[in-house]
Amino acid sequence: MTTAEEQTSVVPRDGGVNLGRTSTHRIETTLRSLREQRGEVSTGRVLTLIVSVRSEEDLESVVHGANEASREHPARVIVVVHDRTTDEVYLDAELYVGGDAGAAEIILMRLHGELADHADSVVTPLLLPDTPVVVWWPFTSPRNPAGDSLGALASRRITDSFSDAAAGKGTKAIFRRRIGYTPGDSDLVWSRITPWRGLLASALDQRADDTVTSVEITGPSEDPAVDIAAGWLAT
User: Fold this and answer.
1) DSSP E strands: which ranges in the chain?
2) Does residue 178 or residue 21 have the better pLDDT?
3) Are the C-beta atoms of residues 22 and 107 closer than 8 Å to each other?
C-alpha cells in the first residue's frame, strides 16, 4: 500500500515492534509471528476498533483509552494517524501484543502523504473476520460519519462533540451531529451523562405519584451535554 521503497525494520520499543516504511502484509505476518511467540490467539477478539486521529497530539491518552476498553471487550485496535504534512507516501507501524496491550492487539499506523486519504484501503486487510467493526474519532470527526471511508467499514461509529473543535460548541455541536446522523452513530456526550440520568431517574422513582411540570437545566454553555440532557427529559 505504499509507493515509497519498502524498508521494513523490526525494532523492539517499549515492549512493541516498530516497523518503518512497511506494508499491511508485513504488519499481518509480524502480528502472526508475535502471537506465536507469546502464545496469544486472535480468536478471542470480539471486534476491530479503528481509532482515527489527525495528529499525534494526545495520542498516548487515546491509545490508553482504547486499551482500557479492550479489557472488557478484547479487540484488535487499529490507531490511524493521518499525516498530510509530507508529499512522500509511506506507512509506518508499531505493534503491541500482550503485556501493556492487555486484552488487545494494538496496531499504531502512521499514514504519510496521499496515503492518509486512503485509510480504508490500508486497514481493510487488517480487519478481523466475522467480527463487528467500530470506528472512533476522539477529536475531529467527519460531518457524516457513515459517509466517511472509514465509517463505511463500521457498524458502529463513535464521535465526541465536546472534543471536536470543528463541530462548534453547545447546541451547534449537537445540531451538526443530528443533520449527519445515521443509525449506528453514537456520541460520547450521551455516555458522559449516564450517571446523571441514573441519579435523576432514581430520584423521580421515589416520587412516582408527583407530576413534573417544568425542569431547568444549567451547565457550561459550550458543553453539548446540557442540550442532550434537556432533549432526553423532553422525550
Assistant:
1) 10-13, 16-19, 47-53, 75-83, 90-97, 105-112, 133-136, 156-159, 185-187
2) 21
3) no
**Residue 49 cell numbers, joined:** 476498533
Q: What is the value of pTM for the model shown? A: 0.85
Parse the chain into domains and list their residue ranges.
Answer: 17-159
Asked if the 17-159 domain carries CATH number 3.40.50, the reply is yes
Task: Report how far apart, in Å, the C-alpha atoms of 71 and of each of 26, 45, 74, 77, 107 are.
Answer: 27, 11, 6, 12, 16
The x, y and z cell numbers of residue 235, run together, are 422525550
Task: Give the integer Cα–Cα distance in Å for 174 and 45.
Answer: 33
Residue pair 45/105 in contact (Cβ under 8 Å)? The answer is: yes
Reported as a pLDDT band with limits 50, 70 and 90, residue 114 is very high
What Rg value do the Cα atoms of the chain yield, rounded? 20
Please state, in angstroms and rounded to a whole number, the distance separating the CA atoms of residues 112 and 83. 5
Query: Cβ–Cβ contacts within 10 Å for residue 139, how many?
Result: 17
pLDDT digits (tens, 9 = 90+) for 76-109: 999 999 999 999 999 999 998 876 666 678 999 9
Roughly what angle, to the nearest 10 degrees, separates helices 225-234 and 171-179? 70
